[in-house]
## 1
Amino acid sequence: MRLAAWALPVFALVLLRAAPASAQAAQATTCNVTLPNGVTALGQDPTPHAHGTEALAVLLWPDGTVTFRPGGPGGVEPDGALTMKFPWHRGVRGRLEIDGRRLDKPERAVRSLVAPGYGEVGFQSTLIAFPSAGCWEVTGRVADTTLTFVVNVVKIGSGPTPWRRVP
């Protein structure tokens, strides 16, 4: 069956109108994200989502994009910040500190919560709050050891359900 001469331009117009989804993909290509290198701290078995060194490692999203969507993981703070858990492993003793900055435009720095009660070495649960969607560089520090990675933060629609604070 032959396509009418008008079918190709109409099909192209439909694709252009569907740009919001493809615009998110285009945004991802403008952020030089860090892909996991499989290295874990403390000599643990390699895992495909780990990124780091034997001294400090974090689990990353496989494609370097942290997506916040309705019904998905993460949360939205009252100020609009997008929050996601990031598990770390420390191979050196000390308290983990996290900071970060947006690379693609000026924005407030990331906030982080490093959960207490995990000791000075090994697994460490954290929550990172990104003030907005965009390209973010995050650095974790323990003693003299640092680990930096870049993620593309994408918000779809209203994002996940806002966090409900316990009074």
## 2
Amino acid sequence: MVAVSPTAPRIATPPVSALARGVADLLAPHPLGASTSIAVRDARTGVELLAVDADRLVPPASNTKLLTAIAALRVLGSEHRFTTRLVADTVPGADGVIRGDLRIVGGGDPSLASADLRALVDEATTEYGLHEVTGRVRTDDTYLDRTRWAPAWIPDTRLRDARALGALAVADDIDGARIDPAAMPAPDEHVGRVTGELLTRASVRVRGDKPGRPAVSPVTPVTLATHESAPLAEIVQFMLRRSNSTTAELLTRHIGRALTGAGTTAAGAAAITEQLHADSPGVRLLDGSGLALEDRVTTRAMARVLADAAREPVVGAALVSALAVAGESGTIAKRMVDSPAAGRVRAKTGTLSDTSALAGLVDRADGRQLAFSINMYPIASDQRGAARGLQDAIAGVLATVDLEA
């Protein structure tokens, strides 16, 4: 159990508002009160309404995914789609034979599934009457960095909280069954194997050896079939509501590639961190999912980024649609069910062994929208339930308190 001083936290900005009093009344008697940092802003004006220890550096946990989502929407655009291609060394002949290799070229689609590979094979075999490949099935995942994990992740995080990363990866087998990440080979190797099996089922003979990574093609490849993902806004919704770390890390690498040409975790995390610097020069992000234990933000910076994003027409609309809704969906579907916050709080949770966080937006009955960030750190693992209860109570105050009093 982490020892926590019962001393009431310092309240600031403004010190005597009804909002400040309401939150202080919750924190003062609570055993986690002194471990709590809070920042609240009016999302429409950007004005800070409440700050409780808001400049303290804290682990953001999965609240990091909010920052990744906002950066991805800004850099790539809400309608961006990720492309996976099936290409050949040569145009298939009239006899349905590809003379050379068949390649699956990954574009870093976080949502790619074996059903999409099946659609690629079906499109190519139907269009060209394929029945033979004289070469091999090869994979190309060079669009993004091929490092399989975020470098800052500790070994226990790998496979338990995410699958191996790559620009060409699926999480299921040929029949759509999800597979154990620990049993999966390198992501592109798995895709090559699945594609080979799909070709066999489609009565396409592959004469080459087992699937492999690309050799340099002697010619400009010919695209036989293309799969495009859902729009980025839908992928961001999946990431935030499911708290999917693999999606967050791939988007981080896409951000890095788009801005610097380097599709690495480091390049993307640096770009995401840049959003926070105006308020808090001490912040540090080493990944895009929040699994890196040395990530640090402040609630003041987090609330500011959320408020700024909410005011951007396209990014704000996509963010509102993507966030889980209290009492209704995502990781807060069973929280705040009988609270004034139900249906009004849209938020992302964050949990590590010593951290519990909640951040997002509140759509109030008076038409005002608030951006907020709540972080409890440090806490003991057996205090998580109490932390969530306190977060929910604070969210109820944000939804109902008279902001003019």
## 3
Amino acid sequence: MSDDLTPQGDGTESSPSHDMARTSDASWGERMFANPGGTGVRWSAVIVAALVVVALVAVGVTWFTSHRSESASASPGASASTNPGPVLMSHDDLRTVASATGHTVYWAGARGLQTYEVTMVGNDIYVRYLPAGVAVGSTQTFLTVGTYEKADAYASLVTASTKKGAKSEKLAGGALVVVPADKPTSAYFAFQGANLLMEVFDPTPGAALTLVTSGAVQPIT
């Protein structure tokens, strides 16, 4: 069992929210929340002909829902750049994607005029909240909710909670939430018996934990 909070994978890709904080890195579109999506599903290549919002949504949702069977046979060494995204989606699109993944996907609810930028890496889903006027692929950092497939997610958090400087709380529903000392902008939570690890990132230290403990982070419905 791994003690770290990084979604399982080949270890060659870094956490999306922490990449966001490094503005000197490659552009947001190049990074594409490059977080390993586990030892299982990888995605086939997707060619997007134009960066028109309507086309992006159609490609992202339709590709995701109609080609899951193909992705099962994709090479496990495929690059994160072969994954569809980032893509702007509506609430209805988010529901479709959440249904297609085969596991619960979390978000922070509808938040005013903000739009939802979604990136899919394997079965891991990232929902980033873009303020009005911010383009898809922006290198700026904003609230992001990630849902990762990870075996022993709860046990990993128990271990992480014992690290020096870590903050941890038990939620009303039984989940454990942990903010590592070296990652004050991210709050991770998991439920016992579920192989899902959720990460909430907010560029303001402490804001992610407040969101999680307030109950604002819920499954997409």
## 4
Amino acid sequence: MGDVLYDLKRYEEARLSYEQALRLDPTSAEAYVNSTTILTTLSRYEEALAACEGAIRLEPRYALNHASKGWLLERLARYEEALTAYQEANRLAPNDAGIWRSIGDVLTTLGRPQEAQQAYEKARQLDSEEQA
């Protein structure tokens, strides 16, 4: 139901639907991911971060959850924490060019241009391999 409401851009109703899903099954990683998505759409980043951390507790080996956490922490200007989250995502999915780019972006923001350049180069290399 929440997905349909989300697709209809009825975001607050979708949020309530996802909240209800979590009450019914607090062990559903999918419900936490959906909550993260809708709260992010609503620019409620602190709440989205809490939902994302719920998804990570349930599925700690899913790289996208860690990457989502990094993105949210960036939005909250918590760059060192964002870098840590992206590094964990990278540990789980070392061939994901998008994660490497995100690491480069955070390193740039942190004033670490040489490390950022290395991350961007790794992303370009992975993109080239994917197109080959």
